[in-house]
Structures are given as C-alpha cells and as structure tokens.
Design goal:
Strand content: under 5%
Distance between the termini: 51 Å
Helix content: over 70%
Structural class: mainly alpha
Order of helices and strands: HEEHHHHHHHHHHHH
Largest sheet: 2 strands, antiparallel
Strand order of the largest sheet: 1-2
Number of helices: 13
Number of strands: 2
Length: 330
C-alpha cells in the first residue's frame, strides 16, 4: 500500500468513526439532559447537546494507539494518548458538574508534564538548571494553548474547522516542506479526519458541541504536534498555522486582565463573538477563518523555504485583517 493511500485510509477511517460515534451519542446526551442552554453569554439560540468530544477524542486516540502498535510512530505517542485520555475524563467531570479553575489547571499541568517527558531528549537544546527553566516555559505555553483552544470553541464549527486547518497545514508541510516527516503525516491525517467527521454534526446549525471533554484534549494533542515541530527547528510554521487562534484569544485575555475581570469566566468578547453579536452568521465567520487559514498555510510553507521574515510579516497582516474584519462586521 502506497503512503498516500495509507494516509487517505487513516483519515477516512478516523473520520468515519468520529462521525458515526458522534451521531450515535447525540440522543444519549439528550436523554441525559446534557444540554447547553442559551444564556446572555451564548452564541446559540436552542438547547444543544454538549459532550460530543467523547466521540472525537475516542476515535482520535484509537487511531494514535493503532499507529503505535503498528510501529508507525514513536513509542512516546502512547504516553501522550494516555495523558489525553486522562485529561478527557477530568474534563467530562467538569462538563457534568463543574470543577474549579485550579482543578482544571492542575489536570492540564499534569497532562503537559507527561507530554514533555515523552519528548525525545534530542529535542531539548539545553541541560541542567537552564534546561529545567526551558521545559517549564514550554509547559506553560502548552497549558495556555489548551485553554485558548477551549476559549475559542464558542460558535458552530469554529474549533473543528481550525483543527482541520492546522492538521492540513502540518500534513502539507510534512509532505512538501523541508521537514518531510512520515510520523507527522500520519498523526496529522488523523486530526484532519476526526475534525471533519465531527464537523458533519457541528457545522451550523450545530446538533452537538464538543464540550470541555473535546476541546481541551484536542487542544492538548494539537499542542503536542505544534510543539514537536517547533522543537525540531520549524518554529515559524508552528507559530503561523494557529496564529489566528493565538491572536484572538491572547488579545482578548489581555484586555480582560487589564480591566481586572475574571478571565476564566464565560464572555462574548472574542473577535469571532463580536462578529456574531453584530449579526454575522456562524458559517460566515468560520468561512472567513478558513480562508485566512489557507493563506496562513501557504505562508507557513514559504517561511520554511527561504521566505522567513516576509512570511511572518504577511501572516501578521493576514490575521490583523481578519480581526479587523470580524470586529467591524455588519
């Protein structure tokens, strides 16, 4: 079997499992009254089941463990998968009855600690006390990414579309870029398949939401792949691919911090939420983000092929234009 056929098969199987399992869990969640009811901070108008991430994460982790058993990926993927599964369990408890912000951060920190311990030693450029500081910084960055991905899961299809776009970008780069990488191709193909399989049910009008059980572990797994890319020297593409999510969440959080607000509380101040409040449909917002992500993928590829400074500058222009477009939508 050619590698292209294998990649397509992995993506299709993961996507089918995600789609089928998500469709099957919707009536179960409705019977258990696991519903997100609209409130003043919501961007939806009908009670909608939450917790669909159980299906997506289960299919994704099954694919990663299967690849590990086949010997197609590094042994550390098992540790990452188990940490993601444990994080999903904690997040499911949070979805059911709510946990304190500190409890969630502790769970995320533990998962990130496991993830960093699974990184190959050759990816850590310094040792000793400086190495410990370096790894702590990586851990904090990873925890922030998990939380911002969760924050950005606020309208129909946005988190799934972003995960698919990042997956496609990594797949494209691992195939055609200077850092061709068969392991990244395989893992990225599962992300693409799972995200698209979930979007079948989550595209506006959404029939189910990810919930924390989906958004936090998905952010964790994406963070691992992006961090692994950066540690192998391809930091520009690891920064450019998720740049819209990084910018929207970080700018919004900083504004709330400066106003003395509780940043962990739900709100409607993200740029994508501003666009919806001004009347832009969920699909229109997501399509704008997808268009920007396509351009960012091209910039990411170019940045690692001799156009580093130009591509970084153009990426900032693209994301700035998207933020302005969303904040001034009518």
């Amino acid at each position: 079997m050619g590698e292209g056929v294998l990649l397509a098969a992995i993506a299709l199987v993961t996507g089918f499992l995600t789609c089928a399992a998500t469709g099957a869990i919707i009536p179960v969640l409705r019977r258990q009254n696991m519903l997100d009811h609209p409130n003043e901070r919501s961007s939806h108008s009908m009670p909608t089941p939450r917790g669909g991430g159980i299906a997506l994460i289960s299919a994704l982790l099954l694919a990663w463990l299967a690849l590990s058993q086949m010997g197609a990926v590094a042994p550390g993927i098992v540790g990452i998968s188990l940490a993601a599964a444990a994080l999903a369990v904690i997040c499911w408890i949070d979805d059911l009855r709510g946990l304190s912000p500190w409890s969630r951060l502790l769970a995320q920190g533990a998962a990130v600690a496991v993830g960093i311990s699974c990184l190959p030693e050759t990816t850590v450029p310094v040792a000793g006390r400086l190495g410990s500081v370096y790894l702590t910084g990586l851990g904090l960055l990873w925890v922030w990414w998990i939380n911002l991905f969760n924050f950005m899961d606020g309208i129909d299809g946005l988190a799934g579309a972003e995960a698919a776009a990042i997956g496609v970008g990594m797949l494209f780069f691992a195939t055609f870029g200077v850092g061709t990488d068969s392991e990244l191709r395989l893992l990225a193909s599962t992300i693409v398949g799972a995200a698209i399989g979930f979007l079948v049910w989550n595209w506006s009008p959404a029939r189910i939401f990810l919930g924390d059980v989906g958004s936090a572990p998905l952010g964790y797994l994406l963070g691992f792949l992006l961090l692994a890319l950066a540690l192998r020297g391809f930091w520009k593409i690891a920064l450019i691919l998720p740049l819209y999510f990084l910018a929207d969440a970080t700018i919004t959080l900083t504004r709330r911090l400066l106003r003395g607000e509780r940043v962990w509380q739900a709100h409607r101040e993200h740029y994508y939420q501003q666009a919806v409040r001004r009347g832009l449909r969920h699909t229109s917002v997501v399509k704008r983000v997808i268009a920007a992500d396509i351009l960012l993928t091209a910039c990411g590829w170019a940045s690692e092929n001799g156009w580093g400074a130009v591509s970084l500058g153009l990426s900032i222009v693209i994301v700035t234009g998207l933020l302005v477009s969303l904040s001034h939508s009518r």
